[in-house]
Each structure stands twice: as C-alpha cells, then as structure tokens.
Prior knowledge:
The structure is a single chain. This protein is mainly alpha-helical. Helix 2 packs parallel to helix 4, helix 7 crosses helix 11 and helix 7 packs across helix 12. The protein is globular and about 55 Å long. The N terminus is likely disordered.
Amino acid sequence: MNESEIRNPVTAIAESDATGEVAEIFADIRETMEIPLLTSIWRILVDIEGGLRSSWDATKQLYQTGQPQAALLRIRAETVLPMPQPITISQLARVGVNREGLSVIRSILAAYNRSNGLNLIALTALSVSPVGQPANDHPPPGPPLWPPFPSLLGPERVPAETWSLLHRIHHLSAVSKKPGHLATVWRHLASWPGLLELIYAGMEPLARTGAIRRSMQQMQDWAQREGACIAHLKTGTDSIPKEAGDLIASYAKKVHHIVTMGHSVACWLETVK
Length: 273
C-alpha cells in the first residue's frame, strides 16, 4: 500500500475489519466520544506504527475533561453557516426520501458532525501551543442514544454516477484535491442519490459566491482559539511518533471543511417540515 492509499479515507481500514488491540481502541474511542462510528483519522492512524495507541491516549485525556465538547457547542453557535434555499418534505419524497429516511439521514449527519467537530478541536489542541487561559467550561450533556445506521457502502457497491456525485459534493469545500479522497459522511449517504442531487444543487451556488469558504474560515479561526486554550490540558504528546503527529496536524488544518459542510446540510434538513 502506497502513501496516498494509507492517507485515503476510502482505503483506510474499515471499523468492521478491526481486530485485537485496534478493535479495542476503536471501541474505546466510540465510548469516550459518545459516537456510533469513527471518522477517518483514527482508521488512517492504524497504518503508522504506534500511531493509533499513542495518539488516542493523548486525545482521550482531553475528551475526559469535557472541554472539546463544550468548545464545539460554542463554535457551532458562533459560526455563520451557509444555508441553501429551504426544501419541503414533498421535494424529498419526489427523490425517494420519506420521513423515516429523513430521520436516519439526520442521525447520520449528527453523528459525523459530532465526531468530526470534536476531532477538529481536540486534534487542534494536540497540534498547537497553549495560548490564553486554560479551558475550564462546564461539560455539556452527551448526545441521545444513536439509532441503528445503514452500512457504509464500499466503492464497488456505489453506482458510478453516484460516486461521481459524491466527489462533486466533496470538492465544493475540500481543502485537499487529492484524487480518490472522499469524506466518509458523503459515502454514508450514498443510499439516497436523490438527496445528494439536492445537496449539490443547493450548496454549489454557495460555493461559487464564496459563502462556504467564508464559513470554513470562521470555523477554523474558532477551532484555533479554542484548541489553544484546551492545549494547556494536554499530556503524553511526546510519545506520539513524528509521522502520526504530522498527520494529526495536517488533518486538524483540513477537517474544518467537512465540519462546516456537515453542519450546514444538517441545519438545512432540520428546517424540513
């Protein structure tokens, strides 16, 4: 496996394929972060010797303080999200999304938004120097129980037209234009190609006007400020291999794109009556 494949969310190890210590760490991540699924960074770190264990040990301590969780709520409240024109349940029904499907889609987006958003803040804290006052907010309550989710489809199970559409949505906000890379949240929505068409139609004009990029910059600026305050609390980072540390720092500078887009689409769909 070459480096581009190792760093690719599509080709990284699937959660269901994890065994032994890796499976145990994955389970600990889900329990600690209160999420039903992992985003790509943890699956990618598996391919760096010692990377997953050392990185998670350092990050877990931050999550146990509750500060990344509190910061995510504040960042979400302060960021002006780009919003497409409202849609109705009738429009969704015409593309194959009923109310039950909409509920599942909302839960998928909420799960990825929590996971990606918390990673943005905590991994930024691992990557930057402490600045300002140490974070000391009251931890917010955890999320409600997650419903069962549909399986994450592999590329071989997604029609070529839908796969191309997933990449077009991804590239509306992606910081990296590496061929083949695709944010996992969009792949988890591949069972609803009609919805994906609506997402692209709604978000593409916002990309052209720069609204998405402006929101992304806001998100990143807030994450840097919050991460620098939380950085006072970090320990154990000396044990993280340089390759893993570099990967985490790179990820923390890029993941704001999917945090912004994910929250935008989620808020848009919350307006559907």
